[in-house]
UniProtKB/TrEMBL annotation:
This is ABC transporter domain-containing protein. PROSITE patterns: ABC_TRANSPORTER_1, ABC_TRANSPORTER_2. Residues 5-247, 312-530 form the ABC transporter domain. Gene3D superfamilies: P-loop containing nucleotide triphosphate hydrolases, Valyl-tRNA synthetase, C-terminal domain. Belongs to the ABC transporter superfamily. ABCF family. Uup subfamily. It comes from Mucinivorans hirudinis. It holds the Pfam family ABC_tran. One of its GO terms (molecular function) is ATP hydrolysis activity. Keywords: ATP-binding, Nucleotide-binding, Repeat. It comes from the Bacteria. It catalyses: ATP + H2O = ADP + phosphate + H(+).
């Protein structure tokens, strides 16, 4: 296999803080590598170094000759005033450089023009703009003349993603590619990468994405690099085996440490003479023990504050912004200990829903009643602005000195921070020293230390590392209060939510009894059913209960069974046509709009068919 990227003995530090030391990594052709490490350990820094955007102290990075590299940054930014299409031509890739060279050569003339044409042919750069429009359209960006400063965070991410894909790189580097993407776009990206032949190096906390895309996982833990040939599920299994082996070794280290510590205390003169080697060995043993402590798994059992019989009730709640309906006559009563996930496309109104729940927004009509004992804990996707000169421990202590545990004991603020992976030495660092992900983790701690009994979490998984997500999931699994969570992280939703509020648009909210995977399977089954409705009609009628449909409803029921396959066929045809690369820009836009209409129509008719099938 050809080697696309070779990293040897790479070292990077900021002052006394070492991010990685002697790091080596190889990415071969066809490798799809997921890089896993805790927040603040230099994942983004490493990707920036590979992309040539940051320097390093020592080591060597070698890229294959003539390799094309694409890079999606975690927080992409474009110059204000640029249109979406102009932003695609601002990329630093071979194709854009070749186009710029060709345009200059056309103006100047001479022998350089022939060379520029040859380079354009070599890179297949003539249809760059058409490819850009095709990928943007598939990512639901169809207004190519829109100014980038008018785009939402999710739209900016999609434009940046299109930028990385247009040039058809040999090596694609992705930093948190699923952040701010809704589920539909995430699953599109999974399919796109699975069908491509490129090599991949990415950082993501999306565990289903890692599972479905990657064939190798590289973990950086305590400055050590561990490689696993397999997907995320394989990695978790083998990592657990490594941890269990490490725990056995750590226990031996602790026993030896205790014996050597006792010897040191009994022998004050040991630091001179022949016993010096034993003292040196003890110092090394101390380092091993501290390293082992860092990798210990956490166990949380927090006691949520008491919550009364009346918790939360919404009755006939409606909310709209102009013609856009968020909720329409929605009613629900929350039960003690209930954990609800909210899903829906970007822009459907998920954040508006929870802001009404919290009393930050008032409904247009209907009532929202909150029980007197309810104490909300709200984690906003906008985050929290910290005083950069404050110490980590002081940020939490000024909220609460401790938090009660389920066994009756109390966890101090310092112990609580340690459970969320802030080691004692780091707790006295200033907030300014924290990475973006570490600040989000600290924000999470400030919410949880208040000991709420009703947690409202809006995109809590963005910018958190997998280790923190595992801690949060364990916390929520044993949490006795109510939880409402908005998240595009499918793995997280499967672990946390008992049932889902599916926001379908036009004010419709479906209460789905199951986790996210159950919901996806249900939707897939609906499509299969809608494609073969005649089998339902062919069931022996004598075994069916007497119909409860009116004559008019029966005619509607039969008509839907005829219409659904035709709608699905039209949608499939349009999707195939869009992927062919043969459609004009206007045709692509029209096809994308028609597919959107078809999806809405199919969902609406399928729901109606299900309602009537229960009565048929």
């Amino acid at each position: 296999m050809a080697i696309n990227l070779q990293i040897e003995s790479l070292t990077k530090s900021f002052g006394a803080r070492v991010l990685f030391e002697g790091l080596s990594l190889t990415v071969e052709q066809g490798d799809r590598v997921g890089l896993i490490a805790a927040n603040g350990t230099g994942k983004t820094t490493l990707l920036n170094i590979i992309a040539g955007r940051e320097d390093y102290q020592s080591g060597q990075i070698t890229l294959r000759k003539d390799i094309r590299v694409g890079y999606l940054e975690q927080k992409p930014a474009f110059a204000a005033g640029k249109t979406v299409m102009e932003a695609c031509f601002e990329s630093d890739n071979d194709m854009v450089r070749a186009i710029a060279t060709y345009e200059r050569a056309v103006k100047e003339g001479g022998i350089g023009l022939q060379e520029a044409i040859g380079r354009m042919e070599q890179l297949s750069a003539w249809d760059y703009e058409q490819r850009a429009k095709q990928i943007l359209t598939q990512l639901h960006i169809t207004d190519f003349d829109q100014r980038v400063e008018k785009l939402s965070g999710g739209q900016l991410k999609r434009v940046a993603l299109a930028n990385a894909l247009i040039a058809e790189p040999d090596l694609l580097i992705l930093d948190e590619p699923t952040n701010h993407l809704d589920t539909e776009m995430t699953e599109w990206l999974e399919r796109y990468l699975a069908a491509s032949k490129l090599s991949l190096l990415m950082v993501t906390h999306d565990r289903y994405f890692l599972d479905r895309v990657c064939n190798r996982i590289v973990e950086i833990d305590n400055l050590q690099t561990y490689t696993y040939r397999g997907n995320y599920s394989y990695f978790t299994e083998k990592r657990q085996e490594r941890i269990e082996l490490g725990n056995a070794t750590a226990e031996k280290t602790r026993n030896l440490y205790r014996r050597e510590l006792e010897w040191i205390r009994r022998t004050p003169s040991a630091r001179t003479g022949k016993a010096k080697y034993r003292v040196d060995a003890f110092d090394e043993l101390s380092k091993e023990r501290r390293s082992a402590q860092k990798t210990q798994q956490v166990r949380l059992g927090i006691e949520a504050s008491r919550i009364g019989g009346k918790i939360f009730e919404m009755v006939d709640v409606s909310k709209a912004y102009g013609e856009k309906v968020i909720l329409k006559n929605f009613s629900y009563t929350f039960a003690r200990g209930e954990k609800v996930g909210i899903v829906g496309e970007n822009g459907v109104g998920k954040t508006t829903f929870i802001r009404m729940l919290l009393g930050h927004l008032q409904p247009d009509s209907g009532t929202i009643e909150v029980g007197e004992t309810v104490r909300f804990g709200y984690y906003s996707q906008q985050g929290l602005e910290f005083d950069q000169t404050e110490k980590v421990i002081d940020v939490v202590r000024k909220i609460s000195e401790d938090i009660p545990m389920a066994d009756g004991s109390r966890l101090t603020a310092s112990q609580f921070l340690q459970q969320f992976l802030f080691q004692p030495s780091q707790q006295h660092d200033f907030v300014a020293k924290l990475s973006g992900g570490e600040k989000q983790r600290l924000y999470l701690c400030t919410v949880l230390i208040t000991n709420p009994n009703f947690l409202v979490l809006d995109e809590p998984t963005n910018d958190l590392d997998i280790q923190t997500l595992n801690v949060l999931e364990e916390y929520l699994a044993s949490y006795t209060g109510c939880v409402i969570v908005v998240s595009h992280d499918r793995y997280f939703m499967d672990k946390i939510a008992d049932h889902l509020f599916v926001m379908q648009g036009e004010g419709v909210v479906k209460d789905f009894n199951g986790d996210y995977s159950d919901y996806r399977q249900w939707k897939e089954n609906l499509l299969i059913t809608s494609q073969k409705p005649q089998k339902i009609a062919e069931q022996p009628k004598q075994e069916q209960p007497k119909t409860k449909l009116t004559f008019k409803e029966k005619r509607e029921f039969e008509q839907i069974e005829t219409e659904l396959p035709a709608l699905e066929a039209e949608k499939a045809y349009l999707e195939t046509s869009m992927s062919s690369g043969e459609m004009t820009t206007d045709e692509l836009i029209a096809a994308a709009e028609r597919i959107r209409q078809l999806i809405e129509e199919i969902d609406e008719k399928t729901m109606r068919w299900l309602e009537m099938s229960e009565l048929a």
